[in-house]
Design brief:
Largest sheet: 4 strands, parallel
Order of helices and strands: HHHHHHHEHHHHEHEHEHHEHEHEH
CATH class of the largest domain: Alpha Beta
Radius of gyration: 20 Å
Number of helices: 18
Oligomer: single chain
Strand content: 5-15%
Number of domains: 3
CATH topology of the largest domain: Rossmann fold
Distance between the termini: 53 Å
CATH architecture of the largest domain: 3-Layer(aba) Sandwich
């Protein structure tokens, strides 16, 4: 999106307030400056090189960019992209990113992951030696599954093996660079994207299976936005599961567990509408889905991406979502959402069990076929 188009979209706002009804940061703060309408006004000031105060800058950076406001806007304003573009402009004005996001950036540059994880321990979750198998399909683990929630990595790896999927792991797997683009550092994003594309080409990768919804969205949408055609297909692991599980339906334990499925922004609203596949996979395992009032296109954001600089707000956003979940068990298909939801669960004193999609399915398969 060009600045001119962004300003035109901002000027088309009719101040109807529909976006305020779905904005999670506005919901928990009740501050206009942390709602979509005021953020658009702030963005216009940024684009026109006008002075913005510190609270307005916070309003630009504590936006989840989850796109819920986009869904309900009657003028079809791409609010999330306008806010991201304003962050790009703040970089050029040397105002942003803020200090803590800058530390995340420094960590990625130093450790090649967004969690300051020791690169030597990236594969510690593997049950055995690193597999030397080669394939044109890569299971891309990502930062959050490698360092924050390795159970998502191990369950996904073991499940695909059990289901007979041909894939390889990449020992020198790098961060996908999502945070660079998300926070407005398109210069660093382009450099990282190019490095990864070259690495994938060197290894003959034609298809990438992701665990994290952010990695999926990045490879599928932001890589082509910056680089053009990248030469590989991108699928999320949840997209593969219904067909594979139907072939093994007699081997799945179905015990009627009640769970609520959380829709990651990067798979659904911001991505390709991947809503049904993970639900179908869970139902094939006998899960009784307890749906929330607002799901799919209006599913709640986990709040994870603002933890680096707005921890209390992120915890409240996550905790507020958890309060609306009637089931005791929550399952998501994004390893980074696991981070955000569990952060709110812990900080806000909630008592939910939050798991990754493949953990639940692997349990069902192993319970029926103990080795």
């Amino acid at each position: 999106m060009k600045v001119k188009e962004a300003i035109e979209q901002i000027d088309s706002c009719i101040n109807c307030g529909a976006c305020l009804e779905v904005c999670q940061t506005y919901e928990v703060t009740q501050k206009d400056v942390f709602g979509p309408i005021h953020r658009l006004y702030t963005a216009r000031k940024v684009f026109q090189d006008e002075e913005v105060n510190s609270e307005e800058i916070d309003g630009i950076y504590n936006c989840l960019k989850c796109g819920r406001c986009n869904v309900v806007c009657p003028m079809e304003i791409d609010i999330a992209e306008i806010i991201r573009k304003a962050q790009v402009q703040l970089v050029t004005r040397q105002v942003g990113p803020l200090d803590n996001p800058n530390r995340v950036i420094e960590g990625i540059q130093k450790f090649d992951n967004a969690f300051n994880g020791d690169p030597a321990k990236k594969w510690d979750w593997l049950p055995g030696k690193f597999p030397t198998r080669e394939s044109d399909t890569l299971l891309y683990i990502g930062c959050s599954a490698s360092f924050a929630y390795p159970q998502a990595a191990s369950a996904s790896y073991l499940l695909l093996k059990k289901l007979g999927v041909d894939f390889m792991l990449l020992r020198d797997e790098s961060c996908c660079g999502y945070f660079y683009y998300y926070i407005g550092r398109e210069d660093l994003a382009r450099e990282k994207f190019e490095q990864n594309v070259e690495k994938f080409k060197r290894h003959g990768i034609k298809r990438i299976i992701t665990i994290c919804a952010g990695c999926y969205h990045n490879f599928k949408n932001w890589y082509p936005d910056l680089l053009g055609p990248v030469g590989f297909e991108v699928v999320h692991i949840s997209q593969l599961l219904p067909t594979l599980l139907k072939e093994r339906s007699q081997e799945l334990k179905k015990d009627g567990r009640e769970m609520t499925y959380h829709d990651p922004c990067g798979l659904g609203r911001l991505g390709d509408g991947i809503y049904q596949e993970p639900r179908e996979a869970l139902q094939l395992c006998g899960v009784n889905l307890v749906e929330m009032e607002q799901t799919r296109q209006l599913g709640s954001c986990c709040g994870a991406l603002i933890i680096s600089n707005f921890r209390e707000l992120a915890a409240k956003v996550s905790g507020n979502f958890l309060d609306k979940v009637k089931a005791g068990d929550i399952v998501t298909s994004c390893s980074f959402c696991l981070f955000g939801l569990n952060y709110g669960n812990r900080k806000m004193g909630k008592d939910k069990r939050i798991r990754y999609l493949t953990e639940v399915i692997l349990d069902s398969l192993e319970a029926s076929n103990p080795e």
